[in-house]
Design goal:
Blueprint (H helix, E strand, L loop, with lengths): L2 H30 L6 H6 L2 H9 L4 H22 L14 H6 L7 H11 L1
Helix pairs in contact: 1-3, 1-4, 3-4
The protein binds zinc ion (ZN).
Length: 120
């Protein structure tokens, strides 16, 4: 296994672990706030439905959880498609250091500074 493959596997594991932790937390919060009728309903709902409920809830922590889960889920989907590590804006390779800082990072350095300049 090459160094980059090993780095990729580590990032993949981190994403999968974060995904699972976020999903558990999200489900827990949804039940706590009685946003879903039952725990069974949660187990049956798909991820996008849960993200939608949480995102529409106007509860700050649920909003943040849903937003992060969406980003992490997108990164995992990108891995399945073989598109992981490519910037969603310009399709350039995202720096490994940036991915190690945040495995779900969707943008390269240039696009990140660009959007920071425009939106913050
Ligand atoms: Zn970019």
């Amino acid at each position: 296994m090459t160094t980059s493959e090993r780095a990729y596997q580590q990032l993949k594991r981190r994403l999968e672990q974060e995904h699972e932790a976020l999903l558990n937390e999200l489900k827990h919060e949804l039940v706590l706030n009685t946003l879903v009728p039952s725990t069974t309903a949660i187990e049956l709902a798909d991820l996008n439905a849960l993200i939608k409920i949480a995102g529409a809830s106007y509860l700050g922590n649920l909003h943040d959880l849903a937003a992060r889960l969406e980003v992490v889920d997108a990164a995992i989907c990108a891995m399945k498609l073989g598109m992981y590590g490519l910037c969603t804006d310009c399709e350039e390779t995202i720096e490994l250091a940036a991915l190690e800082a945040d495995p779900a990072q969707p943008r390269c350095h240039a696009c990140r500074s660009h959007s920071r300049y425009h939106h913050d």
